[in-house]
Structure formats: structure tokens, C-alpha cells
Amino acid sequence: MCTGSSGIILKVTNSIENMNISTSNSFNEICGAIHIHTTFSDGGVSYEELIKTAQTLKLDYIIATDHMSLGGRDSGFEGFHDNLCVLIGYEHHDPDIRNHYLAIGSKKVHQNSKKPQEYIDAVKKDGGIGFLAHPAEKRHYFSNLPPYPWNEWQVSGYDGLEIWNQMSDWMEQIRSYLPQKISGFCS
Ligand SMILES: [Zn+2]
Predict the structure, then answer these.
(1) 114: domain CATH number?
(2) Is residue 5 predicted with pLDDT exceeding 50?
(3) How far is the CA of 99 from the centre of ligand 1 (A)?
(4) What is the pTM of this model?
């Protein structure tokens, strides 16, 4: 069953039956989206809207990771919604809002962890796994929307890196779009 974040891998494995995925073939494709923000932090949609959209897109799973919030889990949104598995972690950051870390399976939001190594260790000790979020983000085109790359590379114990992030990519691509719009306005 997919009813909680602890023991997440075991639960996802056990959830294959719920997801109508054949176990008779050697390979299965399980499609989902991770690192999603909702109105519990700076996202634009509620959980109800998010779940409805994911179901419309026929995703198998989503993992929502609001900034410093497990509000969606506390509100009971984690679990199966028909065939969609909804897992809820959170995105931790340091006091300067830098060094974002996707914490999945952590029992709580570690408000008091101040240094990246401390919150990496805290999530692991809590039974969770974690990924360095948008570690090479650039986007230097808007002063009010600066990049948030990972800066503390001496850390250890994390489980992986985020290698592509739609928001980061969009922000970086918009550089080539803006001058056209600006020149359009000027012509
Ligand atoms: Zn982030």
C-alpha cells in the first residue's frame, strides 16, 4: 500500500499491483513527476487540482515536495487516488534559502537543521532519502528570480541529484524569448 512516506521504496514496490502494471513482462514503464509544488508553498495549484491534472495525463505517480512543508501529507492527500500514487516529501533549504534538498520519506520537516550536511543526515536518520535539487541552475536574467544552485559540494550521504527540472529549464530558455518580445513592443 502507498499510505505513508516511511519505507517508501517497499511501499512503491508493493503498489505495483494497485497501478495496473503487468508483472508478466520483463520491463514496465512507470511514468510520473517529482518535485512539484502546490499552494502549501509557492506552487500555483491545490492538491485537488494537481491530482486531477496528473490523472488526466495518466501518470502512475507524483511526488510533491513543497518548500519546508508536509502540509499535503498532514491533510491526508498521500496515498492512492484511483490508479495514481501520490507521495509527499518536502524541499528543505538552508537559512539563506540556498542548497535545496528534496527530502522524501522524512517523518517531519527539519526546521532546525541549519547546514546542508545536517539536513541530509537528519532526513537519512529519519528513514528518508534525498536528492540535491536543481544543483546546476543558472537563470541570471531576472533579479527577483535568482538561480538556486547547490553550493555545498563537500557534503556526503545524499542519494542522488536532480538532473532536469522543468522550471529551471523554462527560466533558462526564456532568455531567448524575451528579447523578441521586447523588440516586438519596440517595433
Ligand atoms: Zn528549489
Answers:
(1) 3.20.20.140
(2) no
(3) 8
(4) 0.81
Q: Is 152 inside any structural domain? A: yes
C-alpha 15 to ligand 1 mean position (Å): 28
Start-to-end CA distance of the chain, whole Å, equals 59
Give the β-pairing of 32-36 and 61-67: parallel
Select the more confidently predicted residue: 58 or 23: 58
What residues sit around ligand 1, an ion, with C-beta below 5 angstroms?
100, 133
Q: Rounded to the nearest whole angstrom, what is the distance from the C-alpha of residue 100 to the centroid of ligand 1?
A: 5
Tell whether 97 is covered by a domain. Answer: yes
- What is the Rg, in whole angstroms, of the alpha carbon atoms belonging to the chain? 18
